Amino acid sequence: MSEKNYAPVYVMLQLGVVTVDNVFQDPESLEKQLKELRAASVDGVMVDVWWGIIESKGPKQYNWSAYRSLFQLVQKCGLKLQVVMSFHQCGGNVGDAVTIPLPHWVLAVGESDPDIFYTNRSCNRDKEYLTSGVDNLPLFQGRTAVQIYSDYMKSFRENMTDFLNAGLITDIEVGLGPAGEMRYPSYPESQGWVFPGIGEFQCYDKYLKAEFKEAATRAGHPDWDLPNDAGEYNNTPDQTDFFKSKGTYLTQKGKFFLTWYSNKLIIHADQILEEANRAFLGCKVKLAAKISGVHWWYTDDSHAAELTAGYYNLGDRDGYRPIAKMLDRHYAILCFTCLEMRNSEQSSDAKSGPEELVKQVLSDGWREKIEVAGENALARYDSTAYNQILLNVRPNGVNKNGPPKLKMYGVTYLRLSDDLLTDDNFTIFKSFVKKMHADLGYIADPSKYNGPVIPLKHSKPKIPIEVLLKATAPTEPFPWDKETDKKVDA
């Protein structure tokens, strides 16, 4: 069997492994857990490196010491490391067990200028992440949001050079929105959103409002405003004039807005990834960006929940391929969620299509010749979920004589917990790791299965948004087998 069939497995560490007070709290317990993972042939772990912890004392006052201790322990246990530049708040999303706000000096700016946060039509502010409207405005003691993110990543590189040089850190996932995902905070539980609500557009802060007005005026429509007919968080599409059958989203005005809203997200990600590329230039790491698996209302004509999140994806318009094209410019991995979900597990009233969504997004990445990786959206310990992940990792199975036709770069499992390590759950998980590895056993050197690890090169030239939008023409996803040829033992 060719080693090219091997797909690595990482496990996300607990959200509060470094506390909000910047203390690596319980290294003894974690060491025991990491050794169990290593004995199970797990390849590595993923950790959030929280902006709200590291730069909490004041602008450019970084303290990396707790994370250095954590990284040393991961290295000692023989695991690799995926690092997330977490520029968002922890708390307020599904599965958030701890609260880590943005740095207090940033929140202090928000006291006098609440428009630095994403805002819905009712003027509710979402304090999870700064609005892209302030990306290039020097509102933070003379720095723009993008400069803050850039300085943070450069400081990380300076302080973690030894780990980068040692090959401990394989991927750097760059936070681009709430939950670290490249999206708008369109479905915040903290504001009362409940699945499967369509969510709300988040562009009513004064900065994005002004940008939209400017764009509409340039397009010859100074009378156009942001939508006022798109409903509320927990509506269904047909309860709104915007998303209903033959609704506003299909009009010239609706299309103009949706193009502007989704383009803002792509430009935001593109700019920050360019800064990440500069910060880590020459390091033997891969950059990555996480795209959210907004699978509810996917089979509705309106794709309402995707649209409010910033993914302008419809039956006749591919909202994900332009993102893949943009990621290719930075040699970045597209990381996608909800790999474990099956349509049959979803309630019919959500018009959910996780299987088709996964196929569409992964196919878009493969068509743009970029690496695609992924994770499960909800904690699952059953063979059904693992087999679905395995099917998505190698949609056409293994190839005994060479690389498989299609293969994901790897999977990060959510998440390390006492539940995962209980006897029954861990037995199935170990079988999952073995099947991810295509029954080849543990391979320490990533170049043997994912190709040579080369120093990060300069981002390619900027792609005009008009060129990116040519990639919205829909294409059929690649064919998937009905089930995986590497099933875990039930």
Automatic annotation (TrEMBL):
<dbReference type="InterPro" id="IPR017853">
    <property type="entry name" value="GH"/>
</dbReference>
<dbReference type="GO" id="GO:0000272">
    <property type="term" value="P:polysaccharide catabolic process"/>
</dbReference>
<keyword id="KW-0119">Carbohydrate metabolism</keyword>
<dbReference type="GO" id="GO:0016161">
    <property type="term" value="F:beta-amylase activity"/>
</dbReference>
<dbReference type="InterPro" id="IPR001371">
    <property type="entry name" value="Glyco_hydro_14B_pln"/>
</dbReference>
<comment type="similarity">
    <text>Belongs to the glycosyl hydrolase 14 family.</text>
</comment>
<feature type="active site" description="Proton acceptor">
    <location>
        <position position="375"/>
    </location>
</feature>
<keyword id="KW-0624">Polysaccharide degradation</keyword>
<feature type="binding site">
    <location>
        <begin position="376"/>
        <end position="377"/>
    </location>
    <ligand>
        <name>substrate</name>
    </ligand>
</feature>
<feature type="active site" description="Proton donor">
    <location>
        <position position="181"/>
    </location>
</feature>
<feature type="binding site">
    <location>
        <position position="96"/>
    </location>
    <ligand>
        <name>substrate</name>
    </ligand>
</feature>
<feature type="binding site">
    <location>
        <position position="295"/>
    </location>
    <ligand>
        <name>substrate</name>
    </ligand>
</feature>
<dbReference type="InterPro" id="IPR018238">
    <property type="entry name" value="Glyco_hydro_14_CS"/>
</dbReference>
<feature type="binding site">
    <location>
        <position position="337"/>
    </location>
    <ligand>
        <name>substrate</name>
    </ligand>
</feature>
<protein>
    <recommendedName>
        <fullName>Beta-amylase</fullName>
        <ecNumber>3.2.1.2</ecNumber>
    </recommendedName>
</protein>
<feature type="binding site">
    <location>
        <position position="88"/>
    </location>
    <ligand>
        <name>substrate</name>
    </ligand>
</feature>
<feature type="binding site">
    <location>
        <position position="48"/>
    </location>
    <ligand>
        <name>substrate</name>
    </ligand>
</feature>
<feature type="binding site">
    <location>
        <position position="290"/>
    </location>
    <ligand>
        <name>substrate</name>
    </ligand>
</feature>
<keyword id="KW-0326">Glycosidase</keyword>
<feature type="binding site">
    <location>
        <position position="415"/>
    </location>
    <ligand>
        <name>substrate</name>
    </ligand>
</feature>
<keyword id="KW-0378">Hydrolase</keyword>
<dbReference type="Pfam" id="PF01373">
    <property type="entry name" value="Glyco_hydro_14"/>
</dbReference>
<dbReference type="InterPro" id="IPR001554">
    <property type="entry name" value="Glyco_hydro_14"/>
</dbReference>
